[in-house]
Design a protein that fits this description.
The protein is α/β, with parallel strands linked by helices. Helix content is 37%, strand content 13%. Among the domains are: 225 residues, Type I PLP-dependent aspartate aminotransferase-like (Major domain) (Aspartate Aminotransferase, domain 2); 113 residues, no CATH class; 42 residues, no CATH class. The chain contains 18 helices and 16 strands. The strands form three sheets. Strands 2-8-7-6-5-3-4 form a seven-stranded mixed beta sheet, sandwiched between helices. Strands 1-11-12-10-9-13 form a six-stranded mixed beta sheet. Helix 13 packs across helix 14.
């Protein structure tokens, strides 16, 4: 894979560019471009294939005809809708026609909302979403910022990109009420169809009757058809008509027309695709949350934002995943408001996620293997020297690690390594107990001096706080060798207050999605989203190990 493509431009290279630079290798698994992997269905693609010659050969209908059909399916008045060749075309025309002098936008966010106004000489007032608040938008603080800066246009992306943060509908309406005096308030709901936090999350119906509100929606992201380039905006008839009159009469292509006219027949399949994707998002969130020191932000989009452990950079990880594992991820170093320590990972089916997890594990835990004597060279020597200064591993500790490695062999089908040692790293003990009123392992962690005795799970659905799970650091990690797509993490001596004996746990990546395990689950433990499983007794744990389908 030609890695220079990743450094040649500010924006991520297109999938076609990666294919051209792959030199005949298998296509990469795309964790970069947010796309619905379950729609269109195979039957829809077969229909498009059978009609490909007609679709390519003849002119499409004009935009008004296609817009009328979309409104018939979505339940909008055609006078309140304007369709564009992708949402980016609509952003461009909104900037040219409706943004006069200044625009306020929270960052990090979709880059065109900052770049487009700057390119036309507007002032862009950037409101920073704080990492310490998990990039959550505070409506009152944002309104105060807009008043202080004197911004005439305000934008929010809901869910936001790249973190997937979601502002509940009642909060969005409160924001619109407080900004009724602005020239324009834009709510970008490009990822709105992926929201499952509440039944009817969008505010497009409100935009149609308010004097200064535009709601933007993407069809390519939702329907898994980025290449068609179609999106639409909803506003009152005057605003929508002003944008619609400026657009070319034939700005939509024949593929867009065919898909729009198929939608009425395919809404059941489309809703099922959203359900499956939301299930994948919950599973992927839990799996990533168990990786040591990896911070994972809860999301209502079809992607997850993660922050790498201290000392790690996303650029070499991105290059490693693409070159060694054929996995393409979005490193966020060029997004305003984030650094290269952040990655945006698109939600994909479990077979693809396993490939991602194996690659991330190999990269993030690779230094441990040097310290454990599995590789040779100067780096191993430096690691041993540094290890010696912090205190050599005791014989008792090494014996415990070898027992953990043997257990990994029995359960996770990895080759035991008798020479496997252990690495001791000093790290402040901590707990991530929830604040008052929140469920187990929720947002707003407070340091209380002890480490949790189990890996934090995803929060309860009814919690209003937005969690960011950061897996606890384990004091000693023995990394076994990988065989048949299994990765085992024998974890010995988890830091606990008052612990006087080792507590060995087993983290295993399953071979098949139906195994009932996920990365970080205890052996044989089923995934149950939103609640903490009970800790099994020792005899039950032994029975579970024997039943492991590895």
């Amino acid at each position: 894979m030609e890695l220079s493509l990743l450094r040649a431009q500010a924006h991520s290279p297109s999938y076609f560019s990666l294919l051209r630079g792959s030199s005949g290798q298998r296509p990469p698994v795309d964790f970069c471009i947010p796309c619905n992997p379950y729609f269109p269905t195979t039957e829809i693609f077969e229909y498009l294939g059978r009609n490909l010659e007609t679709i390519l050969k003849y002119y499409p209908s004009d935009a008004d005809t296609i817009t009328a059909e979309l409104c018939s399916t979505m339940g909008f008045n055609p006078k309140t809708v304007a369709m564009g060749n992708g949402s980016t075309e609509l952003i461009t025309w909104i900037d040219h026609l409706l943004v006069r002098e200044s625009l306020a936008i929270p960052i990090p966010t979709f880059g065109r909302w900052t770049d487009q106004p700057l390119e036309t000489g507007k002032r862009v007032d950037m409101y920073p979403l704080l990492e310490s608040r998990n990039f959550t938008l505070d409506v009152n603080d944002y309104v105060s910022f807009i008043r202080t800066r004197g911004s005439r246009v305000a934008v929010i992306c809901n869910p936001n990109n790249p973190d997937g943060g979601y502002l509940p509908k009642h909060e969005v309406l409160r924001l619109l009420d407080q900004l009724i005096d602005l020239d324009l308030v834009i709510v970008d709901e490009s990822f709105g169809d992926f929201v499952d936090a509440e039944p009817y999350p969008g505010v497009a119906g409100e935009a149609a009757v308010r004097p200064n509100v535009i709601v933007l929606r993407s069809l390519g992201k939702n329907f898994g058809l980025h290449g068609i380039r179609f999106g639409y905006m909803v506003a009152n008839p005057a605003l929508a008509g002003k944008v619609r009159d400026a657009l070319p009469k034939w700005n939509l292509n024949s593929f867009a027309e065919v898909i729009v006219f198929l939608l009425k027949e395919c809404m059941t399949e489309y809703r099922e695709s959203l359900r499956r994707l939301n299930n994948d998002r919950r599973a992927m969130y839990q799996q990533l949350s168990t990786m040591p020191e990896l911070s994972v932000y809860s999301s209502q989009g079809n992607f997850l934002l993660v922050k790498l452990p201290p000392g790690y950079d996303g650029v070499p990880l991105r290059d490693h995943l693409l070159a060694e594992h054929g996995v393409y991820v979005r490193e966020c170093g060029n997004k305003l408001g984030t650094t290269s320590q952040f990655l945006r990972l698109v939600v994909r089916p479990q077979e693809d996620v396993r490939r991602l997890l194996i690659g991330m594990t190999q990269f993030l835990l690779g230094p441990f293997r040097h310290l454990l004597g599995q590789e040779r060279g100067a780096e191993m020597g430096r690691s041993r020297s540094a290890h010696a200064t912090t205190g050599a591993t005791t014989a008792t500790h090494a014996k415990a690690v070898r027992r953990a490695d043997h257990r990994a062999y029995q359960v996770g089908r990895v080759r035991p390594n008798p020479a496997l040692g252990a690495m001791t790293r000093k790290h402040p003990a901590r707990d991530v107990r929830p604040a008052a009123g929140c469920p187990s392992w929720c947002d707003r962690p407070r340091s209380v001096g002890i480490a949790p005795d189990r890996v934090p799970r995803a929060p309860q659905a009814q919690c209003v706080a937005r969690p960011s799970v950061r897996a606890p650091f384990v004091r000693a990690v023995a990394v076994a060798e990988v065989e048949d797509d299994h990765v085992a993490f024998p974890v010995d001596r988890i830091e606990r207050e008052g612990a006087d004996r080792p507590a060995t746990e087993q983290l295993v990546l399953p071979q098949r999605a139906g195994d009932g395990l996920h990365l970080g689950s205890r052996v044989g433990e089923p995934i149950v989203a939103g609640r903490e499983p009970e800790e099994p007794h020792e005899e039950e744990r032994a029975g579970q190990e024997r039943r492991c389908p590895a």
